[in-house]
Amino acid sequence: MLELFLNFGLPFLLLLVAYFVGTMLEKGHFRSIRKREGEYAKFPVVTFDTMPDDWSASSGTLVSGSVVISLDYFKRVIAGLRAIVGGRIKTYEPLLDRARREAMLRMIEDARRDGYDAIFNVRLETSRLANSRGDGKGTAGVEMLAFGTAVKFASRFARTQ
What we know:
Elements: H1 2-39, E1 57-70, H2 73-85, H3 93-113, E2 118-129, E3 141-153
Antiparallel strand pairs: 1-3, 2-3
Helix pairs in contact: 1-2, 1-3
């Protein structure tokens, strides 16, 4: 009976615990993201590769924000099963969404901390962090980098409304 539990029950129990803990942590991170996005909702962030004509900048600099989010055990198992039959890996989509939004927020926080008023030419880069040990037991995750050009407006009312 103990052997049966160790072979089947324990892996199932670990998968179940990973699912609930991962879900709880993910929901908490999404709550934090939504709160911070609300705080920065009026901060101009655009993907235009040139500064908008109605912005008059006195200075600018490169700002960035990056984040690395690890895959939880449950997501790895589900993705492994999906890899057998192919198709969309839905369990990874919230991971990428969290990473993108967190990287953007960190970039905005970097600009705000240094007194900048807006960011243009925003770009996103992503990379997959694979198991470097080659034995399936290392950490894997996704890295997201957001970067752009932060500007300080030349005067308080430099950007027209």
